[in-house]
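TA notes, week 10

Several of you asked for a full example with nothing omitted. So below is the full record: structure tokens for the whole chain, then the designed sequence directly under it. When grading your own attempts, check the secondary structure regions first.
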């Protein structure tokens, strides 16, 4: 008697496809984690900014709520997707480094897009409202994103 949970060789994804699937799920987890951390620390605990600062208190709260719902959704959905695809790593089809690289690159991508697009280009919000020198905060924010991206890139280079 054979189990229906085992895939035949022709139904199994290639190692490259398995690594790619695990990477993108982990990338979403990294975006969700960093977004939730950003919302919790900078929006709620420190109260340095809201997602959209050019509005009244109600719209600021709404913009923060939307950001929080989206990032928390990614934070909860991606582990469920990883669990559904756990066989890719446990059976050796995907490299666990794909998982690590995806998380690091997802966190870095969130920080980079937030720092460059939302802070600098669109000016939706500064890192810290009312700061005397907002450029210092922007540079540190974008610099931290580059560190996360570099770690992710170094890990990704080790994927078989």
């Amino acid at each position: 008697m054979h189990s229906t949970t085992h895939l035949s060789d022709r139904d199994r994804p290639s190692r490259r496809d398995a690594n790619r699937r695990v990477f993108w799920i982990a990338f979403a987890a990294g975006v969700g984690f960093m977004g939730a951390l950003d919302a919790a620390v900078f929006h709620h605990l420190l109260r340095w900014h809201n997602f959209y600062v050019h509005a009244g208190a109600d719209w600021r709260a709404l913009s923060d709520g939307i950001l929080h719902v989206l990032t928390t959704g990614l934070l909860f959905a991606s582990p469920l997707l990883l669990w559904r695809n756990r066989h890719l790593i446990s059976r050796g089809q995907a490299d666990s480094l794909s998982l690590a690289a995806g998380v690091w690159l997802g966190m870095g991508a969130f920080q980079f897009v937030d720092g460059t697009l939302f802070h600098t280009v669109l000016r939706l919000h500064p890192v810290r409202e009312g700061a005397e020198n907002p450029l210092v905060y922007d540079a540190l924010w974008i610099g931290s994103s580059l560190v996360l991206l570099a770690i992710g890139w170094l890990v990704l280079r080790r994927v078989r």
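The mean pLDDT is 90. Use that as a sanity check on your answer.
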